[in-house]
Amino acid sequence: MTYVTAEEVKSYAKIDYKDLGYETEAEFNSFLSGLINQVEGVIESYCNVPSGFFQDGGLTFTNELYDFHNPVALRYRPVISVSKVEVNKAGYGLAPDWQTMDSTDYIVDYNAGLIWFTADFPAVKLQSVRVTYTAGYTSTPQAIKNVCLMLAGNILHAILQRKISPVVRIDEFTVRFVVPDVFTDEMRRILAPFICRSFSVG
Length: 202
Known about the structure:
There is one protein chain. By secondary structure, the chain is an alpha+beta fold. Helices cover 35% and strands 19% of the residues. The strands form two sheets. It has a four-stranded antiparallel sheet with strand order 1-7-3-4, with no helix packed on it. Helix 1 packs across helix 3.
């Protein structure tokens, strides 16, 4: 599932398949599909999130390991749901003894991606907390869609203006060639609230 569709990009950019030298709408749509994937990758990389993070319903991360801190800062946020929190009750040098915590033994700050422990602490600190959770958004944020359209539209116009080839094919070189000029400060400002800062997680 993509954040925007080929039809949305065409409507936004106001570019026809003939403008880029394609013989059919189907060929142009195939090109746009690749372009959309590249644009989404640029946005995800800039926001420091994995592929598909902004899709409807977010992404699920299973059995992620963390050192014990109170709170534990999850890698990605905001958090939609936490399905399981486990602590290792074994001591150093012993085989792990993972025990699932009761939901009343911790509190989740969903926006900040923090888990506060109220009881049932692990026996050791290092790699002693294991969490399965879903992070992201219940539906793709409109701001993300807007930047996708803006960036795809800018790339199309840059390609058209520079006439990179008679019939443009999407590839890494083409995107790298134009992105530095078309990924604007305005887009960066829009994306700023969506950047996932790195935490030390052990």
